[in-house]
Amino acid sequence: MFNDARLHTWTGGTPRSLAQLEDRYARQAKGSSPDGTQGWLNWMLRRTSDGRLVGTVQSTLSRPAGGCLEATLAWVVGFAHQGNGYGREGALAMTEWLRARGVGRLVAYIHPRHEASMGIARALGLTASDVVVDGEIRWSRPGR
What we know:
This protein is of the alpha+beta class. The protein is built from 3 helices and 6 strands; from the N terminus they run H-E-E-E-H-E-H-E-E. Helices cover 25% and strands 31% of the residues.
């Protein structure tokens, strides 16, 4: 599923090899950056009818200087599973989980032509800003 080149339409790059994916997942499974300044949450999205993996939702947790706890969100849904609401459902579940644990600000970076991801961001209550990083627009929802 994650070796499908179509998943890189909006993010760029090319699919990683199995060895590269294993290395990446091993690092992510530790749950934090090597210097301890970021926390990492990586959730697998599985279809309830058969348990099949359909995507992932991720969050990088940080605390900007003098600010509230912030979660930068990302989601990936396998090409064959897109359009079924899995990304929205997973992102909403993670958002609720984060809010219940005191995360103040939610952020996502989205390609300006990626309509599906912008729809998910709107469902999360995020709004687009004028900030562009690596060609992606910063969407955010301020803390409570």
